[in-house]
């Protein structure tokens, strides 16, 4: 179907601010519409990806619209925070505006991955009349429990990493071809860019800040059908099955082998994302009786052991399906912990977990898919060697896991603040350890994420860790390993002091979601990715990536990464954009207070005689009492790099119980 592309149009909000939008309109009018609402710049940031999605959806008879959130890209106004009340209120206005256009028939769906997956659910929660269906990819239902800031009450290093990335992103100017006031607006952005990593770090418990936008607060509020998708290499694996289990509207979950990318552009085995999306919207926006509501509640890729490597490569496994979720095919098996392994009956005695701070060297990048390569979890054997492991006997028959394993344990500590990290691994006969799932818990949160409490050394407590969702087939002869550690760097920021956690084995058990079926139903798996249009950018500098580990003279274990995202010219409007990022993670194995992080982002924008360059730096260090955050911005203009602004910020945030 022929489509018309409108490079930019303006959506004027009630308060006069204008949001910038790009349109792909089908030849048939009016048509249902699909909205993607992001802060990542439609003009250049997501332009290549948008070409692979919205052109296909428009050709299928949908009016597609990509809108820049206020204060980002070419949109007017000031950005304040992720998923803020302003963002969601503006989103409601955008939905109403779309529904009122003569090219729209009044029915609107939302699609998005990560940020767009979040706000699609969040806007559905608010029940705007025009929104009729959602496709949410790599999202969360609980902003405190399952985002990039905290995990089990532990601080994730990605809180500062993501804050640094957003800092760099939010300093980028609007396009002078669209905004005559671009320079005035740019200077305002540079001066007022939020110190997001600090703002997030000040909310260390599950308070009202995190409850805002967490749709798990009221499942019944979502009244639009939801298709929830993610991939096992992604950080966001818990939402699809949770939505399928709790929403009362038609809901389907799909989890493939993918990383943090739309499935059709995954580097781990692309899937037919387009057909799934079009089928969903055909049913709920066009009213076609195509049977998508009769698909299995949960379709997933059951992974198997392969030689894990940080490099992007296809996964091993097969597609399975569960008609209903939760499924009667999944039964909980209780494996009691015993010294070095498991037992049928509770065992006596204790085991002490006290790990060096560098456990986690093979953990991979927290959210694989954000870097170019070298970001997946590797062979866990070296991390296992520094952890306390409980190994099964070699399996006498295959074992399939589907769901969230739970570790229930009784413990004492020698410090008021301590962490425990649990990993499930599939260990091959030759000793290669593949991570199946993991999860951390700040033990001060043993009772509640809302009201944690300092621990009393020597006192006995009970806690539970629900590991992240998994789907895994262990072969006969393989070993199921539970590895426990008191650190997991660089994913988890360490506690203030090295701590010992002592487990009382008589009350420690691993509860496994074991899947047993006598007859597999038709999996209805997504097929291979179909052909899709590719934006014909002119590549002026190719992308590249590297990662290096070393030990410094003072004993710090250091990981340094570099991703050059290249430099390209857009064929539609001749904008030339280049970017790269360096990251540094360091820690001494014997001292958690030495944990340190640094990132540097560089952006360049050019067109004819217009040149802009932005460099940002973010750092975070700590001691036993505080976190110390620093950032610096330098912006220049012109080919001779005349300085526009250089500014530095420093903040100290008390650790509380982190």
Profile the largest sheet.
12 strands, mixed
* Residues in helix, %: 10-25%
Low-pLDDT stretches:
none
The residue-averaged pLDDT reads: 97
CATH-level-2 architecture of the largest domain: 3-Layer(aba) Sandwich
CATH superfamily of the largest domain: Alpha/Beta hydrolase fold, catalytic domain
Oligomeric state of this protein: single chain
Total of domains: 3
**N/C terminus separation:** 55 Å
Helix and strand content put the structural class at alpha+beta
Radius of gyration from the alpha-carbon trace, in angstroms: 25 Å
The CATH topology of the largest domain comes to: Rossmann fold
β-strand amount: 35-45%
Tally of strands: 33
Which shape, going by the Cα principal axes?
globular
Question: Can you give a write-up of this model?
Answer:
- With 658 residues, this protein is α+β, with helices and mostly antiparallel strands.
- The protein folds into three domains: 3-153 and 204-295, Rossmann fold (3-Layer(aba) Sandwich); 330-515, Jelly Rolls, CATH 2.60.120.260; 538-654.
- It is built from ten helices and 33 strands.
- Strands 1, 2, 3, 4, 5, 6, 9, 10, 11, 12, 17 and 22 form a twelve-stranded mixed beta sheet that branches. Strands 26, 27, 28, 29, 30, 31, 32 and 33 form an eight-stranded antiparallel beta sheet that branches. Strands 13, 14, 15, 18, 21, 24 and 25 form a seven-stranded antiparallel beta sheet that branches.
- The chain is globular.
- The mean pLDDT is 97.
